[in-house]
Amino acid sequence: MTALVDDSSRFGTYRPNAAQRRLYRLMPALYRGGWTGKRIFGRLRWLDRKLASRGIADVERFGLRWRLYRTGNVSDSRLLLRPDSFDPVETDLLLRRVRPGFAFVDVGANCGFYAIRIAAAGGRVIAVEPHPEMFRRLQFNAGLNPGHALRLLQCAVGDRPGEIGIAEDSRNLGRTRIDGTGAIRTEMRPLLDIVRAEGLDRLGALKVDVEGFEDRVLAPFLKEAPDGLLPDVIVAEHTWSGNWAQDWRQAAGARGYRERTRTPTGNVILIRDP
User: Fold this and answer.
1) Residue ranges of the chain that CATH labels 3.40.50.150
2) CATH number of the domain at 88-272, please?
3) pLDDT tens-place string over residues 74-95
4) E strands present in 70-149
5) Rg for the chain, CA atoms, rounded
């Protein structure tokens, strides 16, 4: 495990300097500016890393505090440099649905981008992240934004209880995969067991981003969960569908879900009509 984590220094220790803050205001628009804009964006990202004495940035995004890491995790980099293009279709849809009693389970929570935003909007959130160092980052970001109904679980989610290995991708922790031969060992729990143990009697939404393990998370849950526990919305990564042993979307269709859209950032959104 080589991931950089500082969860002991106070927030503000890694505050970007004035030049970096000007870059951050400019970069999102550049990224949206087509091929030329993305080329310039890449050069400015390189400049940001040169200007930084350390690879960490303490910033505010979406009215919330974050400690983000410039390298080694794409989600951190997106939230730091182009937050408005980080899963906008998915997050806008979910945030519009948050109301009293809305419960959200985030499987593969990473740095907390979904979980913390939805908790801050008033949802009750269960955020699950198996990687030990990524979980420490998630804990720190959650602690920077206290007072919300946010519960963190360090485990994998799959089709059986027990122990499983995870294989770390040190270049992008978000691509760390559940793999029986992985060097990092962690507890694995079925999703239905987690939902019941947390005392949830209804889900507003569920997000699953686990690099090709989505079918082992979703297929058993969709087959076994009572109607009352089925979420209104499922957001799941589909770019690793070639790794699925079964297409969980068939089980979803049998439970009344229809595909609403596939997003530019690699997720499929399913809606269950009342």
Assistant:
1) 88-272
2) 3.40.50.150
3) 999 999 999 999 999 999 999 9
4) 103-107, 124-128
5) 18
